[in-house]
Amino acid sequence: MSSKVMLDDLFGYKVVALLGEGARSKLYAVKDRQTGATYTLKHVVIDESRDKDDRYLKQVETEYTTLRELNHPAIRKMIALKRARPLVKVMEVALVLEMIDSSTLEEEPPKLLRDYVRIFAEVAEGLAHMHEKGFVHADMKTGNIMMPVGRDSEKMAKIIDLGQSCKIGTIKPRFQGSPGYMAPEQSAKEAIVERTDIYNFGATMYRALVRDWAETVLVPGGSKSRSPQEVPVTIPALERVPGLDGELSLLVSECLQLKMERRIDSMQKVATKLRTLEKTVKNIAL
Known about the structure:
Elements: H1 3-8, E1 9-10, E2 13-21, E3 25-32, E4 38-47, H2 54-67, E5 78-87, E6 90-98, E7 102-104, H3 113-132, E8 135-136, E9 145-148, E10 158-159, E11 166-167, H4 184-187, H5 194-210, H6 237-240, H7 246-255, H8 267-280
Antiparallel strand pairs: 1-2, 2-3, 3-4, 4-6, 5-6, 7-9, 8-11, 9-10
């Protein structure tokens, strides 16, 4: 495909706008020429002569494989996976996804505590659905939560970017995850399980509420992971945010336990607690 054609058309979809760029991918807003429906298209171009490019292809295929098994309003929907080979050693892949008109929780956090708790509850329910289906997200963070504009009962927070998701119990050959959110078992290349998501989600809630990082094995900007013994105790969110609900702060701390066996043992329990807190927390401004 020439760059000119790419600007107008990708895999039969009309390109409306470039939304963003990654290492080997570009995100486009596209329109179905037959139905007029608008989607997000993640376009990845792989040079098969470069060994490292293969990981980007695998991430797209992983996201597709996981999403086709899921059906929950808090998880971004997958529409289709498209492939093409314009040159002998070049592979193009496009993952067509539900369009979400939104900023992320990292970019545009809400102003009132009850809105935070509602978003947390919706995300926890989506993650619990993933666990029921046998998958873990493995990269939960504030940048992977989107909140549709014009929220109503049909417009929940959306979990996005399942490129690092995997079957429960997977042992990855190299550690994956995001600085400031990574669980100890991820940096140790141990089995990724439901409680891995619980830790990542605890770090996500802490980041959203405190606007600072929890103490984790890999700090933002750091190049080397720490052992759990080297990680300082995270200051409870209640001590960082005046007036924060004590039960909510405790829940975050219970998710952020470095030792897996000390964490809450199911995401459904996390979701249930958050739904209760949604009704009881004092709706302070943050």
